[in-house]
Write a structure and sequence with these properties.
Belongs to the ABC transporter superfamily. With about 325 residues, this protein is of the alpha/beta class. The chain has helices at about 45-50, 75-80, 95-105, 110-125, 140-150, 170-185, 195-205, 220-230, 245-250, 275-285, 300-310; strands spanning about 5-15, 20-30, 35, 60-65, 65-70, 80-85, 155-160, 190-195, 205-210, 215-220, 235-240, 255-265, 265-270, 290-295. The chain binds adenosine-5'-triphosphate.
Length: about 325
């Protein structure tokens, strides 16, 4: 694995007797786009605040670019750009003025600040609205300006908390494309928190599924399926007729088959190995007609829903 830029080691955060984050270990290499995916209250924001040194963990270690977030939070803030979910700008200032103000707060020399602001406004498609007051910006425009704003100080890492909240689908697509492009062009590591599966799937190299303060699994989509459903990594969809109880029973008895569930369009067979040839044989031997047999792909949606609907326990 490439050099990690974000490292969390057995990190926990306890509020009263409740763990908001429970023994989290995570390593994100330089240049990666990592998606922290989980439902509301999973502990995503708490994790982000701890990475930034804005909230102290109850136990564990956090390093960003080798810097201890707990002991040296100011240094960490210098190299991390953070876009919170409730981002605010000075409404009476223009987009450009807001960026220049951020530059001033970060001690960026005037000339460099202006060049960087113009460059970033162009990257986020806001050049034409640069001299418009941000109070008149749409939510999508504000998010794009937010992206430019966190990039003003040339950060090594960008943390985006629910960046697409309240933006229409077209705006979401545009913003995600922009994040991907900027990460590639500027070699930035991105940590993106979201509860939107499709969005995370579109741009992230790796995803961590976070529930009730625990990281249940992390990896690319394929490896997530394997981690979460060790016993049922394949779903084979069968379209045949007739599918009666005797046939379902026979299919269930094929080695590696864990379950067979009747659906509107046929039968879904959950199994540990790809046993489609054996399933086809059973169907034909039973005298039924086989119209189609295919492997269902695991999208993140499928993974997420199967997991949260408790399928893994069946
Ligand atoms: N300051 C606090 N005091 C007490 N409990 C807190 C505090 N901050 C967060 N929590 C609790 O910790 C848990 C995790 O919250 P957190 O905001 O990190 O989740 P999240 O995944 O970011 O959710 P959301 O998407 O809704 O923001 C929740 O149960 C929340 O109620």
């Amino acid at each position: 694995m490439a050099t990690p830029i974000i490292e969390l080691e057995n990190v926990s955060k306890q509020y009263d007797d409740q763990f908001a984050v429970n023994n989290l270990s995570l390593s994100i290499p330089k240049g990666e786009i990592f998606g922290l995916l989980g439902p509301n209250g999973a502990g995503k924001t708490t994790t982000i605040l701890m990475m930034l040194g804005l909230s102290e963990p109850t136990s564990g270690k956090i390093r960003v670019s080798g810097i201890d977030s707990i002991r040296r939070p100011i240094e960490v803030k210098r190299i991390v750009g953070y876009l919170p979910d409730n981002l605010g700008f000075y409404q009476n200032m223009t987009g450009l003025e807001n960026l220049l103000y951020t530059a001033e707060l970060n001690n960026i020399p005037k000339q460099t600040a202006r060049e960087r602001a113009d460059y970033l406004l162009e990257k986020v498609n806001l050049t034409e609205s640069a001299s418009k007051k941000t109070g008149k910006y749409s939510r999508g425009m504000k998010q794009r300006l937010g992206l430019a704003d966190v990039l003003m100080k040339n950060p090594d890492v960008v943390i985006l908390d629910e960046p697409t909240l309240g933006i229409d689908p077209e705006g979401v697509r545009e913003l995600l494309k922009m994040i991907r492009k900027l990460s590639e062009e500027e070699g930035i590591t991105v940590l993106l928190s979201s509860h939107h599966l499709h969005q995370v799937q579109q741009i992230c190299d790796r995803v961590g599924i976070f529930v009730k303060g625990k990281l249940l699994a992390d990896g690319n989509i394929e490896s997530l399926a394997n981690q979460l459903f060790k016993e049922q990594s394949f779903v084979i969809h069968v379209n045949a007729s007739p599918i009666d109880e005797t046939l379902i029973q026979e299919i269930k008895e094929i080695p590696h088959v864990k379950e067979a569930v009747k659906t509107k369009s046929g039968l879904d067979v959950y199994c540990k190995e790809d046993v489609s040839p054996a399933i086809s044989r059973s169907i034909i031997d039973s005298g039924a007609s086989l119209y189609q047999i295919s492997n269902k792909d695991f999208g993140l949606d499928e993974i997420y829903h199967r997991y949260f609907e408790g399928r893994e326990q069946t």
